[in-house]
Amino acid sequence: xxxxxxxxxxxxxxAARDYAQRELIKDVLERDEKAIFPTHHVKALGELGxxxxxxxxxxxxxxxxxISYVLAIEEISKVDASVAVxxxxxxxxxxxxxxxxxxxxQKQKYLRPLADGTSIxxxxxxxxxxxxxxxxxxxxxxxxxxYYLLNGTKNWITNASSASTYIVxxxxxxxxxxxxxxxxxxxxxxxxxxxxPHENKMGMRSSDTHSVMFNDVKVPKENRIxxxxxxxxxxxxxxxxxxxxxxSQALGIAAGxxxxxxxxxxxxxxxxxxxxxxxxxxxxxxxxxxxxxxxxNLCLKAAWLKDNxxxxxxxxxxxxQYAADIAMEVTTEAVQIHGGYGYVKEYHxxxxxxxxxxxxxxxxxxxxxxxxxxxxxxx
Amino acid sequence: xxxxxxxxxxxxxxxxxxFTGTKLTTENIQWIINPWDELTLTRAIxxxxxxxxxxxxxxxxxxDQSVEPTLRKALAIGADxxxxxxxxxxxxxxxxxxxxxxxxxxxxxxxxxxxxxxxYNGGLVxxxxxxxLGRSFFSSVNFLDIKEGAFILNREMNGMTEVxxxxxxxxxxxxxxxxINPRIPAMRGIMMARTKPLEVIAPTEMNxxxxxxxxxxxxxxAKVKLFVPEQVNELIDALHSEAKVL
Lengths: 379, 246
Hints:
The complex is a heterodimer of chains A (379) and B (246).
Chain A: H1 7-34, H2 39-48, H3 66-79, H4 81-101, H5 104-115, E1 121-124, E2 140-143, E3 147-158, E4 165-171, E5 181-187, E6 193-195, E7 209-220, H6 231-267, E8 269-270, E9 273-274, H7 279-307, H8 313-338, H9 349-359, H10 366-377
Parallel strand pairs in A: 1-4
Antiparallel strand pairs in A: 2-3, 3-7, 4-5, 6-7, 8-9
Chain B: E1 2-6, E2 9-11, E3 19-20, E4 23-24, E5 31-33, H1 35-49, E6 56-62, H2 68-77, E7 81-85, H3 92-105, E8 110-114, H4 125-133, E9 136-147, E10 150-157, E11 160-166, E12 170-174, H5 187-193, E13 198-201, H6 232-241
Parallel strand pairs in B: 1-6, 1-8, 6-7, 7-13, 8-12, 9-12
Antiparallel strand pairs in B: 2-5, 3-4, 9-10, 10-11
Helix pairs in contact in B: 2-5, 3-4
């Protein structure tokens, strides 16, 4: 057992913190207000190596561990959860999925630009009628001999308009149910792909979310990931590790709100003293700090299991569910501590509260995490 | 051409400063690269990347093993080599003396120090070092370029800018403005820092000429007394009898 970060992990945390506190903070309010995609930040973070953090240097990545990844996502999310979700999707769904399950030719062609930060990816699983229930894929991938023909609609796709590479989950053999599902690497500019309008979201407004329609999209056979019918297993494997990214994002949102509330409570005076000196406020901050620390430990434990190649389904589900739920609680209390100022945009905490809500919904709702955890209890 | 940047390992500028006797209490302090030194390193890397004829960018500090993270961060940002003189510095004179050997060993054409370090803010090491190396010294430089093998330095002065152009080896202390923001180390740099050389040098024998007798923190802010416009007489009385300025 060792609770000490290595010098490199600490350096990565500081690099992420510096970038967030110096650069992201400058335009985060405007990007939230006008729902502007953070193009220049994505480019800069790609150059710094944050978009392919855990991918091996053999494929252009940085080869860092999952602990470093948790630290980086936490620091970015303290300021800007939209940028964090772009990072999380690219790192833990796309790059991880390709590095571990794609073949060598696919890796050289698609993983390299995604890992070295020159392009980003999107993961297309959710459908209008298949979110939590991922087994019921309506998008079809018909086997046409030397290619597949994709038809259907995917919903809530993060990075949809900015990604160059999609990983698409679709049904090839409906009679086999989830064992008939496949995963494909699809170039986003392929003929037959159209995007729905930009979703006007409550939070994470700087990340671009669209529905994606497939109309007779030809996908070469060599772009299928793994054996025929591997798609559902692929999605579940990838999402299990992906939860660490979103759990860390929720942790960062909570930790960011705590930092802001703690600072404000030592500046704002009421009844002749800083409000921190009122026990009603101090105890709130104490409760918030305990929750943030618990969430951080759960995230780091899941990351440690991943780095040590141990089963992590339960641990990552616990981290995701707990961090998301406390992110909602902690941000709500941070707004309360700020009083009226917390309800206006320039103090950031109302935005963090809006962002926290999504972490309880996407990449597996809190309820889905509880299904995974409870089933794990009786295994 | 070789560049040596003397980097200081200093407490984060938001640290609550506490002393035990005359020694800084180092518990719970987050240490950083002295901001001026980090900016100089950034500028040197910018110049090298832009094709300036720089062979090596080296960094050096004086301290025990606990300062090595600062050197490794400098390597991660982009320095090629680091030196640590294994000596706990006591004052600017001893630091400069220890750095003198490094400057010679590194065969540095340009030696940089910060305008001051963010801990004791003495601003003396550069001048001492220049004197001991027998080199010219320019302080408070906020612009650096290298053209046709010559260094171009700017110094902001009251209402004007002094421009220095020289090919001679020199020591320069750097003011903010030399680079806009310190460079954030990329992952690739953090990985490469593992393999870059960090040489530990035995200290030069010396006796410090300075003894710190006492350290005192600034007095806390006095309470503010407010007067409404109708209380002019009370204000005058207070200025006379309490503040004793009238």
